[in-house]
Amino acid sequence: MERFAFVIHPLQVGDFARKFPFTRWLPARWVEAAFRHVPPLLVSHITGIRSEAGPEAEGWFIGLPMTPRVMLESDPEFVYGRLARCAEMAQRLGARILGLGAFTKIVGDRGVTVARRSPIPVTTGNSYTAATAVEGALAAARRLDIAPARARAAVVGATGAIGAACARLLARQVGSLALVARGWERLERLADQIRAESKCAVEATDRVREAVRDADIVLTVTSATTVLVEPEDLKPGAVVCDVARPRNVSREVYARRDDVLVLDGGVIQVPGEVDFGFDFGFPPGTCEACMAETIALALEGRYESYTLGPELSLERVEEIARIAHRHGFRLAGFRRFERAIGEEEVERIRRRRHAAVPPPV
Q1: Is 99 helix (H, G, I), strand (E, B) or coil?
Q2: pLDDT digit string, tens, across residues 77-123
Q3: Which of 152, 144, 133, 303 is nearest to 213 (CA)?
Q4: How far apart are CA 276 and CA 266, in angstroms?
Q5: Can you list the domains of the chain with their CATH numbers?
Q6: CB 144 within 8 A of CB 350
Q7: Which 3 state secondary structure label does DSSP give 38?
Q8: Measured CA distances, 331 to 76, 227, 261, 312, 328 (Å)
């Protein structure tokens, strides 16, 4: 039996009520302030994972009771210390690898310091997140009759670890690509790298709205804690894959734009009859790609710090995709806000795209 652990945390104050119902009646700042002093806790035991290749795995959710806002406002050393305690708890439980979820893989140096202080290997899961974000966005585009080779794509948060990998992967298949981020030096360096690697037309900008306005495919992968994409920013028939947690795309896009296909990035079906033992907001048997990377590495017996730091290796992105596929991990269809998008809705958006966008000559 292979064993892993994964760190989860509340993305917003309302998430505390999943484990502590009484918190829904308290002021948000009170809840955040009180739980900042609560040490990591065992949330659940994960069972029922069985690879198509044979191995089985069990794991544990370890809860870090801090919202992204609290992590950003805290001294990084304090957060590192809390994550080191998560790793120690994981080792005591029998886990042989620890995955960092949501903002815990963003804070500080993207897992490098945590891995150095951890008694077991650590991974952020960003490699599989990048692979599945691009896979899902391109699959959705084809479903709407968008030919990738003629499509314009935009990656918001392009200089981050996931964003840069997504941009480099997309550039192999789309006609033009807008890279959106702050920090011109890193942005231009990435643009030059992609121009050298592909024939894709690449532009760099720090203006989100201008970049996404004409895009057929949009990926949002920033570490921002606020919404960056609003309903009026998108063209009819666009595919928008929101990989960021907290989300970069407003819920109003879904509510007001019935001609745009908004997807959650990297929602993965886990092999076997998995019981996560805790409702973390996903449909049964599914999880985010970062969690799936941790599980896949355990099933493979690859107990190593696989994905760390501010840059991703495309070789590792492609390797983890192969590993996950071999064990039976699959994209869980198209989903939005953790709910399945029905085929009728997808077809309706496709028809609206055709009505709004003239076919290519």
Answers
A1: strand
A2: 999 999 999 999 999 999 999 999 988 988 878 899 999 999 999 99
A3: 152
A4: 18
A5: 2-127+268-331 (no CATH), 130-266+334-356 (3.40.50.720)
A6: yes
A7: coil
A8: 34, 25, 16, 21, 10
Query: What sections of the chain are H helices per DSSP?
Result: 28-35, 68-73, 76-93, 112-117, 126-143, 161-171, 184-197, 208-213, 251-256, 289-300, 314-327, 343-356
Count CB neighbours of 229 within 10 A.
23
Q: Which residues pair with 46 in a beta bridge?
A: 59
Its sign, for the CA torsion 155, 157, 162, 167, is positive
Tokens of 162: 């996931």
- The sheet that has 267-269: what strands, in order across it? 286-288, 267-269, 330-331
58 vs 48: CA distance, rounded Å: 7
- Residue 335: closest CA among 165, 132, 31, 177: 132
Stated length of the chain: 361
CB of 309 within 8 A of CB of 111?
A: yes
Confidence (pLDDT) at 255? 83
Q: What is the pLDDT of residues 9-51, one digit of tens each?
A: 988 888 878 878 888 888 878 888 888 889 999 999 999 999 9
* Other beta carbons within 10 Å of 227: 16
Q: What are the Cα distances from residue 255, in Å, to 68, 144, 280, 320, 357?
A: 25, 19, 23, 35, 21
- Asked if residue 358 has pLDDT above 70, the reply is no
Q: From residue 253, give the alpha-carbon distance in Å to each of 27, 227, 240, 250, 337.
A: 28, 11, 10, 6, 12
Sign of the alpha-carbon torsion through 309, 311, 316, 322:
positive
How much is the pTM? 0.89
> Taking the chain, what is the end-to-end CA distance rounded to the nearest angstrom?
57
Which tokens sit at 126? 């960003």
